[in-house]
Amino acid sequence: MSRVILVTGATGKQGGAVIKTLLSSSRASDFTLLGVTRNAQSASAKKLAERGVKIVQGDLNDVPAIFESAKKIAAQPLHGVFSVQVPMGSGQTPKTEEAQGKALVDAALANNVKMFVYSSVDRGGDSKSYDTPTPIPHFISKQRIEHHLVDSAAKSGSTMQYTILRPVAFMENLTPDFMGKGFATMWSVAVKEKPLQLIATADIGHLAGEAFIKPDEYAGKAISLAGDELTFEEANKVFQQKVGYEMPQTFGFLASGMLWAIKEVGIMFRWFYTDGYGADIQGLKKTHPELLSFGNWLVKESKFDTVEK
Fold it and tell me: Is the pLDDT of residue 91 over 80?
């Protein structure tokens, strides 16, 4: 029997990267992939189905229903779960994120899942993150989900193994559109001369996939993930080298207005300046040399037309 992996956020960046990693692995035939999406008829869901992913239509506000559908579609027990939640937008808040994340843990334990991979967020490095909620609401919700996962797995007497991945700021926040320009400008305005750690979502997906392929190697680990660390000025120089012009930005007053109006974002960017992420990039690259630097991401993964493409 193949190992059935339920991937939440299958049509999003992280879930999609997990699926890509498992499908391209030399062990791909070992897995049956179930992709959770709200709309099974969306273009992105249909593309996944064409690649052999079985689509599970469901809403994370009703996790038991997702598991029931998944078991019927797979016609065999679920082996693994990749858990990721969106904290903001489309009716989402850190409270709904927390409820969804905890419900996925509970359902996985109730269904005898063997491997659970949770995508959280770094909060100061491997040694600090577990006990550091930070003042950022959607970082707090992720810390609570982590604690629920660890405590529930221990109390249940389950054999379920788990891995917690803690990515830093996504390189994918930088896009040619207004949202990308806004992120770049907020980085410049709020983080100033301080460095910001960055990770490519492809690398999150790669490590999550590795955790399912080699569970004994990853079981019980919590890993902060970053592929690069740059000040805005340093990042802008790399951008100019790879793309041929300066990183696109919007007006500074608009970025300042966004930081004020969207309180959660303002709190997060202030934390970037006062505390910041703490992933051990040098240590990570000893074991995972494939992690993308910002420059490599621009050429290989970004939506910008680069000089090297």
Answer: no
Rounded to 10°, the helix 263-274/252-261 angle is 110
Torsion of CA 43, 298, 23, 222, to 10 degrees: -110
Strands 196-199 and 169-170 turn out to be parallel
| CB-based contact 163:221 (threshold 8 Å) | yes
Helix or strand (DSSP H, E) at 210: helix 201-213
* Per-residue tokens: 125: 């490095």
Q: Average pLDDT of 242-253?
A: 92
- In tens, the pLDDT along 182-207 reads 999 999 999 999 999 999 999 999 99
The overall average pLDDT reported for the chain is 94
Q: Provide the 3-class DSSP secondary structure of residue 192.
A: coil
Predicted model pTM: 0.95
Residue-level pLDDT at 309 = 58
Can you give the length of the chain in residues? 309
Dig out the tokens for 198 from the structure. 């960055």
Residue type, 28: A
Amino acid at 22: L
Task: Name the nearest CA neighbour of 190 among 252, 123, 273, 249.
Answer: 273
160 CB contacts (<8 Å, ≥6 apart)? 108, 109, 112, 113, 114, 115, 116, 153
